[in-house]
Design a protein that fits this description.
It contains four helices and eleven strands; from the N terminus they run αβαβαββαβββββββ. The chain is of the alpha+beta class. The chain has a four-stranded mixed beta sheet with strand order 2-1-3-4, sandwiched between helices.
């Protein structure tokens, strides 16, 4: 992991309702990549995460982080809230620092993630089990239902671009390269908290070209309890 210097996701009734996006029968496994266009160690992880993103049981998300921005190239997708999310994971996973690339699987384990076999190995060890909250995602609402959890969970709305974006990098460690990056996260919004039962949350209409995902997570940097994607 490359670590630059940083500070210390009844039939008739259904016919009348807005169609819900179907979820796989098995729980959706969440793979989050924290990456930077300025990091020379990141392109293999970008490629590996893109490769597994086509699997129906995988929600792969690419978060651009900001702490490389003063080291030769400003990442065109990076947001501070994405860096904050990585720091939440650092605390949850008992790490002293953050670095890129980092792949976090279901909020439970992490790996550098520079190859598909490395990510698959972590997936096997951090598999999201069945029996979590049910997440029903519709175009303008999401419902989360299930028994109360031990601690209040957070419900996150994620908007991501499912296309492969070709990013020409002009300076820094990847200067002169064009990087293919897939499932780039554009928006990350906390919809509210959930502590059991059935609760509904409003979901704004997705911007053109972006897909929607919902993450139900046991607190900041905690394990993913359930997920859904459009």
């Amino acid at each position: 992991m490359n670590r630059p210097i940083t500070g210390a996701l009844a039939a008739a009734t259904l016919a009348l309702a807005a169609p819900a996006f179907a979820q796989p029968a098995a729980p959706l496994q969440v793979v989050e990549l924290f990456t930077s266009q300025g990091c020379s160690s990141c392109p293999p992880a970008d490629v590996a995460v893109a490769a597994i993103s086509a699997r129906p049981d995988i929600l792969a998300l690419s978060f651009g982080v900001t702490y490389w921005d003063n080291l030769g190239w400003k990442d065109t997708f990076a947001q501070k809230k994405f860096t904050d999310r990585q720091w939440d994971y650092a605390r949850g996973l008992r790490h002293d620092n953050v670095g890129t690339p980092q792949v976090v699987v279901n909020g439970r384990l992490d790996t550098v993630g520079q190859s598909v076999p490395a990510i698959d190995q972590t997936l096997r060890r951090a598999l999201l089990p069945a029996g979590g909250p049910a997440v029903s995602l519709q175009p303008t609402r999401v419902e989360v239902a299930g028994p109360a959890s031990a601690r209040p969970a957070q419900v996150w709305l994620v908007r991501y671009d499912p296309s492969v974006l070709q990013v020409p990098v002009k300076r820094g460690e990847n200067g002169g390269k064009t990087l293919p990056i897939k499932n780039v996260v554009r928006e990350l919004t906390r919809l509210g908290d959930w502590n059991g039962g059935a609760r509904s949350y409003a979901v704004p209409v997705a911007p053109a070209g972006l897909k929607t995902a919902i993450l139900v997570q046991a607190g900041p940097g905690g394990p993913i309890l359930a997920a859904a994607k459009s």
